[in-house]
Amino acid sequence: MPEPEISDEVLGDYARILAEVAATGRRLNRDELEDRRLLGKAAAEDGFQLRALVVRHLAATRAAWPLTASADGTAADSVLAAVEQAVDAFAEGFERAQRMTVRREEAARREFIDDLLYGRSDLGRLAERATRFGLRLSRAHAVAVATGPEAYTETDSVPRTVEAALLARFGGRKILLTTKDGRLVCIAPGSQPDVLRYFAKQSHAATDGGRVAVGRPHHGPGGVVHSYDEALDALDLAERMDLDDPVLYAADLLVYPVLTRDRQAMADLVRSELGPLQKARGGAEPLLKTLTVYFDAGCVAAETARRLSLSVRALTYRLERIHQLTGSDPSDPMHRYTLQTAVIGARLLDWPTKEL
Predict the structure, then answer these.
(1) Which residues of the chain are modeled with pLDDT < 50?
(2) Are residues 196 and 230 in contact, defined by beta-carbon separation less than 8 angstroms?
(3) pTM of the complete model
(4) Structural domains in the chain plus CATH codes
């Protein structure tokens, strides 16, 4: 696309100033410098490029040179000093306008992201604003959220590193990368799961082993906040359940929201099945940990003992003690499901640390 032509009006009374400087040797006064700044600001708002504007100033200087030069060279020195002043003030106004534009764009982007992730704006209006940032909210989108050892903002090196990697890999795909509440957030089309997989890989590396959660794809303006909430819930679940996976997918964790949908029923199950463990010496925590590791090890006694740094005999004693206290035998398939569900519920409800 060709650059717009720069008319004489863009330069204002530049030629007149040069003529006066050549005749008097004066410098530009305060009002003239401010006028140059205002002209630079207007040129930026009109979409001109600074390089082209500088070239236009130099061309105007060259055109006026035969009229401003003098035999002894004194006028030339004054004119060159005036050119320096004029172009510097013009560029200052231009750059100031650009910074203001960038700040407005950043504010608009942040407002859009807040509205999008909180779902607090009119959905129709939100969809219209989304096109400005490369998103088509009528289609399915998925959200990934990454956490690290510290909180991040968009100006930090970690988000910049991840963004550079995504742009280098996927170019102009409809991707929105931002930060929210100290976490990295990536919004991508639901039809392109490779984008979020790559985001997860890069974020895990850039955050020195941070954790990433990926929500499921959902359609419509409300789909983004739905997927975002799923990713946040997955991160919270991983914290409570001590999950080791560096990358979590909400689609793989759907059983947990089902288990806690009726919180009161789950609390009753935990109290009924595991409450008697509090009668043990040392409280419920050691035996609850034994059950947790036992189920995580696939109910294999030797592997459980290894993970707990116990002998198989000591582990067997613990399992028998659990049977005595609860009436449920962890090695019995008929009792195992109820016990394991109660153990999962205890971890989800942070029992026994928190009273039910």
Answers:
(1) 1
(2) no
(3) 0.65
(4) 8-103 (no CATH), 137-253 (3.30.70), 260-348 (1.10.10.2840)
